Amino acid sequence: MKLHYSANSSFARKIRVLLLEKEVPHELALVNLWEENDLHRVNPLGKVPVLELDDGTVLTSSPLIADYVDARYPRPRFIPEDLEGRTEVRRWEALADGVMEAVAAVMYEQRFHEEGKRSQAWFERQQKKWQAGFAALERMLGERRWCVGERITLADIAVACHIGFIELRVPQYFSRDAHPSLTRLWRAMEQRESFQRTAPK
Q1: Rg of the chain over CA atoms, in angstroms?
Q2: 50-52: strand order across its sheet
Q3: Which among 102, 172, 191, 194 could bridge 126 via Cys, Cβ 3.0 to 4.6 Å?
Q4: Which of 124, 127, 139, 60 has its CA nearest to residue 99?
């Protein structure tokens, strides 16, 4: 299998970490999304991550890819098999992904529109999303070591990957003081080999 990824995508990093944690053999295809590339040949949406299977099947979107990888290589599990545990991990992932999507929307606005043409209303709308999302994740985590259960899951990977990207690119959008529990989780996750090997630059 081959993973098409961008070094700057926290969604792709989520899958890279999962593959490394599970020790799944895979190829990597680095894509620069800001230059001419042939990613549309694999994914008509032109987005990463994309997992190209050995039989030619193509999987897009990080939740779908994570679901496939965890089911295909179930030891160890990062998405519980039971409905309650699975739903809880997915709930965390969806919220973390939504926070990152709101931040990314603002970053795209700033990249492609001159300052005078940027929409303040758009910024404030997205800001409310990531601020409320971080606040909810902070409450959910509390004093627990892991997001769900007693061991690492996809929830922890998703949260930490997105915080890591935001901390590197737009640290003003994440307050460590206001989110001590999330900060603790993120710092602990960044010590893992899988995170060190996939750290954005």
Answers
A1: 17
A2: 27-30, 2-5, 50-52, 58-60
A3: 102
A4: 127
**Nearest residue to 190 (alpha-carbon basis) of 1, 10, 63:** 10
Which amino acid makes up residue 16?
Answer: R
Are the CB atoms for 103 and 94 separated by under 8 Å? Answer: no
Q: Which residues pair with 2 in a beta bridge?
A: 27, 52
Question: What count of residues does the chain have?
Answer: 201
CA angle 130, 18, 43 (to 5 degrees): 75
* C-alpha span between 77 and 107 (Å, rounded): 34
Contact 97/162 with Cβ under 8 angstroms? yes
The third-level CATH classification (topology) of the domain covering 83-192 is Glutathione S-transferase Yfyf (Class Pi); Chain A, domain 2 (1.20.1050)
Q: What is the pLDDT of residues 70-110, one digit of tens each?
A: 999 999 999 999 999 999 999 999 999 999 999 999 988 77
Residue at 89: amino acid letter:
V
pLDDT averaged per 10 residues in sequence order, the chain, 201 residues: 95 98 97 83 92 96 97 97 97 98 88 71 93 98 97 98 97 98 98 96 78
